[in-house]
Design a protein that fits this description.
The complex is a heterodimer of chains A (423) and B (112).
Chain A (H helix, E strand, L loop, with lengths): L1 H26 L5 H16 L1 E10 L10 E6 L7 H14 L3 E3 L21 E8 L2 E11 L7 H47 L10 E8 L7 E7 L4 E9 L3 H21 L3 H15 L6 E9 L4 E7 L5 E3 L5 E3 L3 E2 L13 E4 L5 E5 L1 H4 L10 H11 L5 H16 L8 E8 L1
Parallel strand pairs in A: 10-13
Antiparallel strand pairs in A: 1-2, 1-5, 3-4, 4-5, 6-16, 7-8, 8-9, 9-10, 10-14, 11-12, 11-15, 15-16
Helix pairs in contact in A: 1-2, 1-4, 2-4, 4-5, 5-6
Chain B lengths: L1 E7 L2 E10 L3 H15 L4 E12 L1 H16 L3 E5 L3 H9 L8 E2 L2 H8 L1
Parallel strand pairs in B: 2-3, 3-4, 4-5
Antiparallel strand pairs in B: 1-2
Helix pairs in contact in B: 1-2
The chains are: A alpha+beta (423), B alpha/beta (112).
């Protein structure tokens, strides 16, 4: 009798080892979370002689309600675990964190309101999946295909499988997360490359003028756009705008905007007309949540006149040698918002010492640790104080002032500035 | 940003609070409005008195909401816009189509 028990024990041990070996071999072949789960469940179903199995993963994403746990079910077959039961089961597991064996589920007081006629589960065996002491999910098998139902030996072997599998499942989950993060990063870097390639590599050299720019993208790809388009020997377009959104959609809209503007710029010498036409084209090719602000200026270097139209961009300003400030506001609303919209234009005569500053809101909306923004007043002050410098140095002074103001606060938006000085 | 919904005289009032910037919640404002439109509720007043920051990105959600409502014979009015928001409305010239009212009740009266 004793010998038989020893043999049975040995047989059981061999069986357990072979199950574990099968699982180890199977899961080592893949990093894919769904596949890992499917393999584990498949082995459990085979070795424990049950109808079905499922792994439920707890997705403890922080939401507004920190105590709310989202239950993400990954199942080999759909709808094994009825929703309400799944919620109760994972609730029980979060609380108790130990194996659960039920052979007569209809009469178990721990789970209520399960049956609305045909409940598909009569017996269940569950074991917690714990990685580094933290509950990450539940391994379940349902409906033992023998009259006696689940045994304590079954419970023991499922617990061992759960213990062995938890880290594998967690690793696969982390691997999956890392892969999708990598994909996002790749897309962002691709978008950034597109954006960088669209922006001009150098400043235009125009006799009688000193022109400089600086563009610093925030870590994420933002939507600042600026361009210099040479129309003929006397006329150069200088434009700067901000495209709504970030990442790939913003980069694509920027490419679209640039192509549109570059096409239209050569057709018309009127800034307002160029924006009116470009707006119509953009409206038709973008969805409604996307828009761009744009300041569009044409510098005529022979007549020293600056024609401009402002499509909803924060107004650039002209500071003359007496430090008098003029805002360049004439224009209209943002591009891509209304299909038929007539943009107005204006022009200013440029005299020696006049400085035009075109910038993006990344400067005025740079925040410090007290949540205060840099603002226009500080910008005016630093510009007025440093007008004597070249365009390039003037920009450096602005950046220095912004840097001192924000201190350690991370830059959240693109910063772009273009300075045009009449020598 | 948080969105709180109430209703008065058949006009939906969305009380927005917090920072209206590039995050899921701000972009979600347009989805929220689209959902209201599907329910046939197309007269909306946005109470912006509790918006602490309004960047160019928050504007996208607002413009899209306005366009969707207009396309569905609805209307959008803004109430209690802060000085910062009014200045963005001003230089983007959005003010010409999206009127701001000093109180929610004035906005409701205007939209009815």
């Amino acid at each position: 009798m004793n010998d038989l028990t020893e043999i049975q024990k040995l047989k059981l041990a061999v069986k357990e080892l072979s199950v574990l070996n099968d699982i180890a071999t199977a899961v080592s072949s893949t990093h894919d979370l769904d596949q890992v789960i499917e393999l584990i469940v498949h082995e459990c179903v085979n070795h424990l002689n049950v109808e079905q199995g499922a792994i439920m993963l707890l997705d403890q994403t922080e939401t507004d309600d920190k105590f709310h746990t989202i239950i993400r079910e990954v199942e080999t077959e759909t709808d094994i675990v009825p929703y309400h039961f799944g919620v109760q089961l994972s609730g029980w597991m979060i609380k108790n964190q130990k194996p659960l064996l039920i052979n007569d589920i209809a009469n178990d007081s721990r789970f209520t309101n399960l049956s609305d006629g045909e409940f598909p589960i009569n017996s269940i065996l569950s074991a917690p999946l714990k990685a580094k002491g933290k509950l990450i999910g539940v391994l379940n098998v349902f409906n033992k295909m023998s009259e006696d139902g689940f045994t304590l030996d079954d419970q023991r072997i499922l617990s061992i499988i759960a213990t062995q599998s938890a880290q594998v499942v967690e690793n696969a989950r982390l691997y999956g997360e890392e892969q999708s993060l990598k994909k996002i990063e790749e897309e962002l870097s691709f978008a950034k490359t597109i954006q960088t390639n669209l922006l001009p590599k150098s400043n235009p050299k125009i006799a009688g003028y000193d022109i400089a720019n600086m563009n610093i993208s925030a870590k994420e790809v933002g939507g600042d756009y600026y361009d210099f388009i040479s129309i003929d020997e006397n006329n150069t377009v200088i434009c700067l705008g901000d495209i709504s959104g970030k990442g790939m959609p913003a980069a694509l809209l920027m490419a679209n905007l640039q192509a549109t503007l570059r096409g239209q710029a050569l057709f018309t010498s009127s800034a307002g007309e160029c924006l009116t036409r470009s707006n119509k084209l953009l409206y038709r090719s973008t969805d409604m949540q996307k828009y761009a602000t744009l300041f569009y200026g044409i510098l005529n270097a022979s007549k020293n006149i600056f024609h401009f139209s402002n499509a909803g961009h924060n107004p650039p300003f002209l500071i003359n040698s007496n430090k008098k400030v003029t805002m360049l506001t004439k224009g209209g609303t943002v591009l891509g918002f209304m299909e038929d919209y007539q943009f107005e234009e204006d022009s200013i005569k440029l005299n020696s010492g006049d400085t035009i500053i075109i910038y993006s809101d990344g400067i005025t909306e740079a925040f410090n640790d007290k949540d205060e923004e840099f603002g226009e007043e500080r910008l005016f002050a630093v510009l007025k104080e440093n007008l004597k410098y070249t365009a390039e140095l003037l920009i450096e002074k602005v950046f220095e002032a912004v840097k001192i103001f924000v201190k350690d606060v991370k830059q959240s938006d693109d910063i772009t500035i273009v300075v045009v000085k009449k020598i | 940003m948080k969105i709180k919904e109430t209703e008065k005289d058949g006009v939906v009032i969305l009380t927005l609070s917090g920072k209206m910037m590039l995050d899921a919640k701000s972009a979600g404002l347009h989805d929220y409005v689209k959902n209201l439109i599907e329910q046939g509720r197309t007269k909306i007043v946005m109470d912006m008195g509790k918006i602490t920051w309004f960047g160019s990105t928050g504007l996208g959600a607002l413009l899209a909401s306005y366009t969707s409502l207009k396309d569905n014979d609805g209307d959008l009015k803004v109430a209690r816009a802060t000085r910062k928001i009014r200045s963005v409305f001003m230089f983007t010239q959005i003010i010409k189509v999206l009127e701001n009212y000093d109180t929610v009740d004035e906005a409701i009266a205007a939209i009815k």
